Amino acid sequence: MGLQVFKTYFIFNIILLFSFSISVNSLLHIEIINILFYFLFHLTFIYFLFYYYHYTHYILGFIYGILFDIILLNSIGSHLISFMVILSIYLLFKKYLLLLTSNQISLIIFISLNLILYIEILLSYFLNNIYFTISHLFNYLVISIIIFIPIVTILNKLNK
Amino acid sequence: MAPRFKVRALKTSKVFKNVTIISIVLLSFFLIFFSKSDYFIINNIKNFSTSVINPFTKVLSAPFTGISNVVNEYKQFQSLKFENKILQEEIVRLKKWQTLAIQNSRENRVLKRLLNATDNNLKLVKTASLVNRNDTFFSKIININAGYESDIEKNMSAINERGLVGKIIETSALKSRVLLITDPNLSISIKTISDGIFSLVSGAGDNKYLVSNFIKNDKIPKIGDIVVTSGTAEIFPVDLLVGKIAKIEKDRFYVLPFVDFNSIDYVQIVTSK
Predict the structure, then answer these.
(1) Which fold has domain B118-272?
(2) Are A5 and B9 an interchain contact pair (Cβ–Cβ within 8 Å)?
(3) What ipTM score was computed for the predicted complex, to two decimals?
(4) For chain B: N or C, fewer Cβ within 10 A?
């Protein structure tokens, strides 16, 4: 069991590392790849948090939060706060999550994904003056709807 | 769909766990609080990110960078015939301009000698090439392969053959980060060449235009006017080409930069003499 958990930890961390690297390096001619990997990072982080919660997730959230902020915004704030908020919300409601069915859990993961992305956009607007429009938020929602089921299916297979 | 909820994790001492979580949350607040000021820790984190993390992520994303280059090559190949026709027309046009420019250049030199004027106000610090870009989400930042070992300092200007590219915001030993002029957080003091209207512009947030956020004496310039840096804020040297007025709204105007930000390969770091 312990070895299996370590193996899954390792795989999820590799996914996080790769998706982080690809999302922060702008690919001018295929920007959609950057966006997809940015979503993949957030979705993997939430999935990993829900099914393999460990206090070291705070360390992961802290490191990736700072790196995302510095590389994409040049000042620490929105990503770090978002990761800390999502981790704290999870800790608060963990005991209630145990009562939910698989469909309800999927819905919670989907809502958490959009919540974290919207918090990042809003905080970057308030802290760093980065503008956003309603179409921007709508695009995020559409992309998350499109990629959610395929990515969760892949993550489930890895999880098994 | 996701399976039923069941946490599988490794066991650790509860006190150690709680202390770690509280320390990280407190450290996060500390960093967020001090991130806007130039404190030692924040600058070191930024330097570490520029010199270590960026090259590391670049290596990991190399296969996708390769695919992106192939896509670009394919797109260029597709438009080759059309571009060739345009280039032939442009060569004819440029030849006429070249003759005129040579005449003007001679005339200029003679007039400068008469006025005892200096050539320009720019000092070239370093020519650097683009390492990678971080401009898909949020801020518009690029990384270049020269840092403070090449005498590059914060707030120096980055230009290319077309005009102003941006401003240095971070330097490490061998790398620097440039904030592009299309970023909404970078304000540039400009003036129009034709009638010297002074104003401040910053990125419009659409990655394309610069928008005015202050116009001196509320004078609105004309569409097509060329704008250059005014040098009044003493951040950018005077008379660097910025762009031209592309559209005007009620009390503001939009500038289309001359620089094509999608094809920056090299930049020159300059400062005022």
Answers:
(1) Thrombin, subunit H (2.40.10)
(2) yes
(3) 0.83
(4) C
